[in-house]
Amino acid sequence: MTVAPEKPQKSDRAWAPALRKAAPVEAAGYAAFAESVFQNAEGQVPLKYRELIAIAVSLTTQCEMCLESHVAAATAHGATREEIAEASYVAAAIRAGGAFTHGMKAMRMLDAHPDH
Questions:
Q1: Which of 11, 27, 79, 92 is the most exposed place for a label (fewest CB within 10 A)?
Q2: The pTM is what?
Q3: Secondary structure of 2-46 as H, E, C letters
Q4: Which SS3 state, helix, strand or coil, does residue 79 take?
Q5: Spatial CB neighbours of 70, under 8 Å, sequence gap ≥ 6
Q6: Chain centroid to CA 18
Q7: How far apart are CA 14 and CA 90, in angstroms?
Q8: Is the pLDDT of residue 80 over 70?
Q9: Domain limits for position 75
């Protein structure tokens, strides 16, 4: 059985203007917030580290567009392949840790269940 290839579609990024137009006040607030976080060269956390943190969070939240933009920005701020790889493993460890700690919650819930 042959599966037809998907038709090329516009990138989801192509819909950004429509989203901004539909909620201009919120869009402006979001843009200002993101700019203050990722372009604050005077902050105590260097821009490269901010972008490495953003990569780790993007991996954890599985936001492909975030990952794409923050890998590019981290690279522009001097992040190396090795730093990005290590940030990936930090995210993986935290994600696994979340599953482990929620396993503890599952045990608590099991012990509290009336049929247990």
A1: 11
A2: 0.81
A3: CCCCCCCCCCHHHHHHHHHHHCHHHHHHHHHHHHHHHCCCCCCCC
A4: coil
A5: 51, 54, 55, 58
A6: 22
A7: 32
A8: yes
A9: 24-112
pLDDT tens digits for 11-57?
Answer: 888 999 999 999 999 999 999 999 999 999 999 999 999 999 999 99
What is the residue type of 29?
A: G
Question: Does residue 6 form part of some domain?
Answer: no
**Number of domains the chain is built from:** 1
Indicate if the alpha-carbon torsion angle 39, 78, 76, 64 is positive or negative.
negative
| Joined tokens for residue 74 | 């981290």
Distances (CA, A) of 30 to 25, 49, 92, 113: 9, 21, 27, 43
pLDDT value for 41: 95
